[in-house]
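Shipment paperwork, digital attachment
Item: protein structure file
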Amino acid sequence: MSTAAGLWNRVLPSGWRELPKVVWVLVAARAANRLGAFTLPFLSLVLVQEFGVSVAVAGLLITGFGAATIPSRLLGGRFADRIGRKVTIVIGLVGCAVAQLLVAATSSLVVVAVAVLILGLAFELYEPPSQAIIADVTTPEHRSAAYGLLGAALAGAAVGAGLLAAWIGQFSLRWLFVIDAATCLACALVVLFVLPNAEREVKSEEEPVRARPWRDPGLMAMLAAGTVFAVLYYLITFGVPLTLVERGLSAEQFGLLLALGALTIVLGQPLLAMRKVEQLNDFTAMTIGYLLLGTGLLGYAVATSFTGFVVATVIESVGDLVLLGRAYSVVATLAPEHARGRYMAVFGTSWGAAAVIAPLGGMRLLDLTNGFVFWVTCAAACAALAVAQPFLRRYLSVAPKQELAA
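Attachment content:
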């Protein structure tokens, strides 16, 4: 074995080395798509600058987009279990491409409003089938590694996406949507023609039992915890640039912090390769991850210089690194095999709910208080999640199974 190959095997988590080809192809396709997925942060800017709407109207349109992602997730899960994982991914990616090309080409506010709604309805379709494919082809002991690989690849691609956006945005914001659409279509082609089949693509009309995810108490417990985490994620995204400005720093420095966070997740992968970390069960790993995340948020509470924000970002990003894939691994274990798409979809609605809760509640807290109180409150929520993990593990071991209907 060459020196380079030996080094690669030492830094690569062992769980990654044992993943099937299906996972690697899917991750590569999604990473390529993520490389061009830089339009969403610029959508409000395009609406204001290119279409002349007020900030308030742009906010309403963005809220409509966020609300549309909730049924998008649920449809993605149902389609994944009914018509097939690959077909659903392709439908979602093509839908995103069409919507973004409409945004890039139109000069009509009505058309762009419809395009934003279409984008929201298509935006989450491909998430549940992607997550279900990983659950389909991996064993329980390798699922955390597989979901972690997907998260790390998307984080790495996000660094490149930020650099591309900074360059392309100098010429025209609309070109961002064209390039994002192109990556969506490229990803769809890879999934359709290169991704190996990993499942029985068409389910029979009559399944032996019909899963009802919303009546599964274990899944509802995971959904509650996942929603709190998703709210915290959005609050970090919204709150850090506002806190930078509050403390006399530049909001533009948030872009550097975003890149730093993504790089920390990518470069921190050798940490996951350590035997003691690999052997952690999902709930212990989540306890550690939430404690690290909370420590980083406490860092934001007291940081007064950009260096302080850098340190806090690295700490909270290490927490994200440890958390990567763990919750999805637990949900995949809870789900009946024929209902994994729907389970992943229901769990994923935490992000849609958080997109509404975070700006309405969390941002209100920041407005009424200050950065210190805001971040201490967020850190306390992280601590609560950490404390809850052992109890959640015990609850899931004794919770009644989800209701099934013939």
